Amino acid sequence: MRFTDTLTTLIRQSLEVGATPALMGEPGIGKSSFVEGLAYEMNTKAFVLPVNQLAAKEDLTGARLVPYTKDDGTDSHKQVFYPHHVIQEAIDYAEANPREWPILFLDEINRSTADVTSGVLTLVTLRKMGHVVLPKNLRIMVAGNDKGNITALDEASLSRFAVFHVEPDASTLMSILGDGMNSWVKTVLTQNPTLVFQKSTPGAIVADGSDEDEDGNVTMADLFDGGEEMNQLTTPRTIDNLSKWLNVAERDELAAYLAAPAAVEGRETTQLNEVVEAYVGDTMFATQLVATIAADLASGSGAQTNRVSVPRPNCYADLKSATSVTELSDRIDQLTANELSGSLVYALKENEDNSRLIAQLAQTMNQIEPDHTRTLMEMISANQVDRQNLEAFLDVNAPIVDQARPIISAYL
């Protein structure tokens, strides 16, 4: 299943009913970005723990033997659990934000030792770690690779999850990166969305096939097991990295790279091809991108814009259903800082008269959260803010309005 709005809906529904979704697919296709984007759309946070970075099960569970004195005065030891700091942060946030569904995302669960993977499965099943019980509103997601050097999960293990086999989607990647995506990259993906994931064309690493050079030194061929090659992939991750490089590269530099000849694994090409392939491999995406850049260096191209995704907080419906100012004020007083900020941004976007709600929120808030500030600026730039609601916000006599006014004015 591709990373589309349909998958987002299905995963969100799984989380709402308390299931544990498992995203299984190739490396670098955007699983982590998808989860972080999903959390933002749910107006909450994702806490990401790369399981493959854990050396032993104790790094996950925090099991430690600590000395203590028994009632009879003798010294002894007992096992105490100190959850991994990411898990503890997720627990603390969930307890402080009981109306949200924060996500504990355990990534690369099957690219670790069998012992560590077993610890993850236990955490998912029991929802506790020693004496530490996960809050009911804390949701768990996992991700892993469905092929390669992995710890295989048996049927009993897989039964703990709702398993979604995922593939990258070009339109989703463009939506996630937004205006940060390089225009040439966006053009290629718009015209050829299937190129978002590709494997490189096989080629010889060592032309003569020998393992030593003339002086008897070990060559690069010794780094590969069984003659396999290390070939770069075109994936959402590598495309994002290439996009960032293209955004900072000067046009005259790119023109010079395009004009300079180069030889890559026996192929006659250009330095620009060589650099692009360093990021995304020798794929059709690389070929199409270089052609697009070459054409644009001569003729130029315009930037494209994307719709801004504005999350709707879980508490928003309760705020809108308030029948009096007093009732609305009481409900607002129960909100967290993240809920206040998210509700304000959504109220500014909604094409309804939200002046009363906006005024009450603005008079209660201390700040607009950084993620919501970025979304608000993108909304204004893309003309997705309701002008009447924005004017109502700017008319409120509150410190938060005074703080936001200069920034908003710069984007109007």
Count of separate structural domains: 3
The CATH class name of the largest domain reads Alpha Beta
> Percent range for helical residues?
40-55%
CATH architecture of the largest domain: 3-Layer(aba) Sandwich
From the alpha carbons, calculate the radius of gyration and give it in angstroms. 26 Å
Strand content: 5-15%
Which strand order spans the largest sheet, edge to edge or round the barrel? 2-5-8-1-9
The helix tally amounts to 19
Unreliable parts: 203-227
> How would you classify the helix and strand content by structural class?
alpha/beta
Sheet of most strands: 5 strands, parallel
Q: What's the β-strand tally?
A: 13
State the CATH topology of the largest domain.
Answer: Rossmann fold
Globally, the shape reads flat
Report the average pLDDT across residues: 83
Distance between the termini: 40 Å
Instruction: Specify the CATH homologous superfamily of the largest domain.
Output: P-loop containing nucleotide triphosphate hydrolases
How would you name the oligomeric state of the polypeptide chains in this document?
single chain
